[in-house]
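Lecture notes, continued. The same structure-token format from the folding unit now serves as the input rather than the output. Read the line below as a description of shape only.
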């Protein structure tokens, strides 16, 4: 079996660390792995399968001889270095938004559109975390009943904004609890936001990524545009609201679909029960439904609360949860690498 020389760019970040861990866990055929980050991390020691590796500086790193790059250093950094890495002979699987909507770049979720991988010209884009878990559930329903309209509201964890945002959630929560003179009420206690745009501890806010001219956020428009690209159907009408919640790992989504063909909740459960990488958890009377604390560390996308939308003729409501760092980012990228290597 061929073994691959792999570079992880953004290796010190929330996604990069998870990618390195998953490459080790899944026994991806690696002959050599190199960890790369910014100048700030040069010389830092990180582990791969118990072995110490020294982090290299991206701006001094040559991609000659590297087969596959697992990339997550942020969109502006990717835009700058990825063309050079491709020119030097590597195939880059990029986790950032830099190339996702480029018509020459496949945007891939292996359970949904693996056929797109073969069209790559050196770059394959990993979709946004909230898109990956959404399309894993939508694809089999779209194939069965054709989705005409989709309304999605997300409840996204702090880790979606990287390791610094997870620290901010921890520190704000701790400082509010430490400064509380009485146990309750804690509402109204303020903490300074440095990484995220608003206080995250004991709060939720409808602001992920930047606001655009159409009054949506970029995160919301990623859900719209990426879903259409992956499902290869620009006719689906989609509207999204993306919300940050004080959870460390695991994004949740309230999903409403209107379909061309009628689909009962039982039929949807049966279809989703057979969908690759999807697990149905739908027994509300026993308090069983997907939640972030149970999805963290898991590879699958969980769906539950499947019920008829009683306000329209042919519609369903669903609740979708996944580990945003694993299936929403790192695992999806490693699965793409596995297909490339197969
Ligand atoms: N978190 C998620 O759920 C998720 C999901 C899908 C996609 N993504 C995307 O993945 C990317 C990274 O996210 P993250 O959550 O891992 O962020 P993060 O925890 O902040 O990590 C950022 C990583 O990028 C590196 N980096 C920053 N500037 C760099 C530069 N100039 N040159 C080289 N490396 C540089 C950092 O290295 P230093 O430590 O040296 O600064 C660090 O390794 C983002 O584009 C994000 O949108 C994230």
């Amino acid at each position: 079996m061929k073994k691959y020389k792999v570079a992880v760019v953004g290796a010190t970040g929330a996604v990069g660390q998870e990618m390195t861990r998953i490459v080790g866990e899944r026994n991806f055929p690696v002959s050599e792995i190199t960890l790369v980050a910014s100048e700030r991390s040069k010389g830092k020691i990180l582990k791969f399968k118990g072995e110490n590796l020294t982090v290299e500086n991206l701006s001094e790193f040559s991609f000659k001889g590297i087969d596959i790059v697992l990339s997550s250093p942020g969109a502006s950094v990717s835009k700058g270095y990825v063309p050079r890495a491709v020119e030097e002979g590597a195939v880059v699987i990029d986790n950032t938004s830099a190339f996702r909507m480029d018509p020459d770049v496949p945007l891939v979720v292996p359970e949904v559109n693996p056929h797109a991988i073969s069209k790559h010209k050196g770059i394959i884009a990993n979709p946004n975390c909230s898109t990956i878990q959404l399309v894993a559930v939508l694809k089999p329903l779209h194939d069965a009943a054709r989705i005409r309209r989709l309304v999605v509201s997300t409840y996204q964890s702090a880790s979606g904004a990287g390791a610094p945002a997870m620290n901010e959630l921890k520190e704000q929560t701790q400082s509010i609890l430490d400064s509380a003179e009485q146990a309750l009420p804690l509402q109204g206690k303020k903490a300074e936001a440095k990484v995220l745009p608003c206080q995250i501890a004991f709060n939720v806010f409808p602001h992920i990524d930047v606001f655009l001219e159409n009054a949506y956020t970029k995160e919301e428009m990623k859900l719209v545009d990426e879903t259409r690209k992956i499902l290869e159907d620009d006719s689906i009408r989609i509207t999204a609201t993306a919300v940050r919640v004080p959870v460390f790992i695991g994004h949740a989504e309230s999903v409403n679909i209107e379909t061309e063909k009628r689909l009962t909740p039982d039929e949807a459960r049966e279809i989703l029960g057979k969908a690759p990488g999807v697990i149905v958890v739908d027994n509300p009377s026993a308090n069983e439904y997907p939640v972030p604390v149970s999805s963290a560390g898991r590879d699958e996308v969980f769906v539950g609360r499947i019920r008829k939308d009683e306000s329209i003729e042919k519609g369903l409501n669903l609740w979708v949860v996944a580990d945003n760092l694993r299936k929403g980012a790192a695992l999806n990228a490693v699965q793409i690498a596995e297909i490339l290597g197969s």
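Point for the exam: The helical segments are 14-25, 75-87, 129-145, 163-179, 218-231, 265-273, 292-295, 326-340.
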